Amino acid sequence: MQPETDEEENSKQHPLVFFDLETTGLGQDCEIIQLAAVNGGHSLNLYIIPRCRIQRGAARVTGFKVRGQRLYLHGQLVFTNSLKEVVVSFLTFLQMLGRPLLIGHNSRSFDCPLLARALDELDLRAEFQASVSGCVDTLPLARELLRDRRLQSFRQENLVRELLGINYKAHDALEDVRTLQTLYGFLQPTQDVVCRHKFTLDTMESKPAVPSSKS
DNA sequence: TGCCAGGCCCTCTTTAGGGCCTT
Questions:
Q1: Which family does it belong to (predicted)?
Q2: Measured CA to C1', what is the nucleotide nearest A20?
Q3: Residue A189 has pLDDT above 70, yes or no
Q4: pTM, two decimal places
């Protein structure tokens, strides 16, 4: 069987998986606390106890706290898995859908490098690459599609409010991916636009986690 | 108490600087 050309690959309508991470902060040493993904009515929502301290700003916006090796979300104890269990579950979710396109907001700069680091730590990057057809970042996509609307902000929360008229619980990964799916449906990018914004983790540098002296 | 990062994009630009966006 001949491998597909880029043109053949790009013309395909792949299933869409929307994903989001909540983390301990914004720096390169931050760790994943929550991973959520959605495809239509199917969803995945898993939590991890981070090894490093949750930065104050991250705790404030996400509502996560670690107390006595337990993770709390807005004061409620949540069930957690190991990083490996979460990443393997995510891979299984992607594989079940048959090489979907992975979509996230500002994912090129934030979520995907973090995901790449987790995959490298578990030696699963190659398996991930074979499980998706590519990644798309809805931040530059929205900027291109909504160029004429003169929006003040392209933050996901703002786009959802301005375009869908919905105020939602931002900074909960599952809520974020559900609203991103709806937002993407509203934007209705053409296949051409999607291809222009498509990228892979191939060239994405995986920055090693720096042991935190703060924890 | 306040700050802590980094990639992308735009412009008052391109050899830079600053704002946006993610937690």
A1: Belongs to the exonuclease superfamily. TREX family.
A2: B22
A3: yes
A4: 0.89
